[in-house]
Amino acid sequence: MEMTFRWYGANEEKIKLSDIRQIPGCKGIVGTLMDIPVGEVWPKARIKALKEEIEAAGLTLKVIESVNIHEDIKMGVPSRDKWIENYKTTIRNLAEFGIEVICYNFMPVFDWLKTDLDFKLADGSSTLSFVTKDLPASPEELIQNMADGAEGFSLPGWEPERLAQCKALFDFYKNISDDDLRANFKYFIEAIIPTCEEVGVKMACHPDDPPYSVFGLPRMVKNRDDLDWMMNAVDSAFNGITLCTGSIAEDPANDVVAILAEFTKRGRIPFAHVRNIKFTDVAAKDFYEAPHLSSDGSLDMYAIMQALHDNGFDGYIRPDHGRMIWGETGRPGYGLYDRALGLTYLNGLWEALEKK
Fold first, then answer.
1. What pTM was estimated for this model as a whole?
2. In the chain, fewer beta carbons within 10 Å around the N or the C end?
3. In what order do the strands lie in the sheet with 126-130?
């Protein structure tokens, strides 16, 4: 197991690599190149520069999050073949510089969704939350709300260029079912996995966030059966999952620990996002993103880490979203301090499991 920390790059961050290097037990960076338009090939020179910058700080770069999927691929339109070829070239380019895992998702339009980016907790910290009744009536209003709450930062998955054609996208997706989306995923994954197998890069699909339909959009990564279907769509160790405990747990019907145990044992989780959530209304599926500590949320973090440990997990983990604490400001969910606390806590649980 290697503990990592997500970092958006020197031009996108207030957080410095030298800060991350001081987190006990943090070995690597989960990196990205946020300014490359979705679908365009990632240039070798840019990848090389990112790797060298991170390694100069004493950290590794083995995981990329994310190489986003062009909407034409998700929609299954004829132009998808061009974007798939670009994706395969990017996989090859990343492999040349030692990248082992690519995290991505197959969610239409939005990569993730919350209704409040600055939800205040009783201890004075702030976090992300989702309250069903607060979901705006229109996606356009939601987009504006997200932009207003982003503290001036570009939010991953909510880049303005991706959302500029929101209305047209929603009109198109009205005619796409969950099964259609599955077929489009299968077309994509069948096309790229031979390249992944050739160069040694594992694809790791992130669950839908939230794991149910919003605004009528199709969904295909909602639960254990969806994950099983995905793994069987192309039965290869290079077709894997980014198992995000917070996202899959947003549907209380999902048994997070059992899902982790099964797919770890099957060797299909090369990358895990480990975080806690606290349900405020289970029936409505309302929650906020809690501190990592088990007692602060609704998930048993020891059981989660045990499911990974006891079933042979040997991939990469990162603490996922954190609160804003101690007066810190920045990209919602991605401050330094609370994620550092979360990483240290997860490392402590892992050490305890190793010494049982």
1. 0.92
2. C
3. 116-120, 126-130, 286-290, 276-281
